[in-house]
Specification:
Elements: E1 13-16, H1 22-30, E2 35-38, E3 42-46, H2 51-62, E4 68-71, H3 74-86, H4 90-98, E5 101-104, H5 107-115, E6 122-123, H6 129-136, E7 145-149, H7 157-165, E8 169-173, E9 176-180, H8 184-195, E10 201-204, H9 207-219, H10 223-231, E11 234-237, H11 240-248, H12 263-279
Parallel strand pairs: 1-2, 1-10, 4-5, 4-7, 5-6, 7-8, 10-11
Antiparallel strand pairs: 3-9
Amino acid sequence: MQDINPNQFSGRTIALPESRQLDVLAALFERRGAAIRRCPLVSIHDAPDQAPIIAWIRAFIADATMNDLIILTGEGITRLIQAAKRTGLVDAFLHKLGTTRLIVRGPKPGRALKTWGLQPSVQAVEPTSAGIISTLSTLPALSPRIGVVLYGTEENAPLQAAISAHGATPVPVAPYIYASESETGAVLALIEELAEGQIDALAFTSQPQYKRLASVAKTHNCEPQLVQGLARTRIAAIGPVMASYLTENDVRVDVVPDGRFFMKPLVDALADHWAQASLEGVSQ
């Protein structure tokens, strides 16, 4: 195991908008000497109206024509299983999952399934919705009805259209929602710190984090400060999907892990970025 350099991020302040695994990510940076600016921008909650979720679970269990299930996030399948457990349906739900072709977008849904003794049947050629769409074209005999565990509440119209184009009916479910967690004042303070150059790096791990940041900036007429702050800060994205989203929103991305899109590779990639800049004599 590679030794950790406790001074690797010495003198650096890194802002983390992560919420679910904030302590884990913060500890990875702090072990290498970073000062952490914690500002969780979003939290995840069960869908407030559980009736449609339970109805979907019952329909999935009973529907002999729904033998394919697309799982976009580990959070989604975890919350579905928890909902089934709360309503006494977990045994039947897990049995149905075990007899269903489980098509996952990336490794996170696979890890969530393994918690319950299940294995993904197919992993997308790349961990994106486009990757799922491409993968569907390679699969034989799609079921007439295909379940889709959505990412948050986004309906993912391109994916549903692709399923329909294959002659199947998409049956989506949205078991969780993203909700604002930080007080607006805390978000405004982060924007000010970014603009003043007090933050050396900002590490994004999900799209709702940037959406919340941009929304607060727009509402409070401080978009120029946010643009200025992001321009002078090293921006790290946990993977190519996050990086593409930021780029589409005119945010420069400096760091993306290569090949493994988890928290430790994100930390390693930022360390490598600064180490390379130091060798090249570039001020970062």
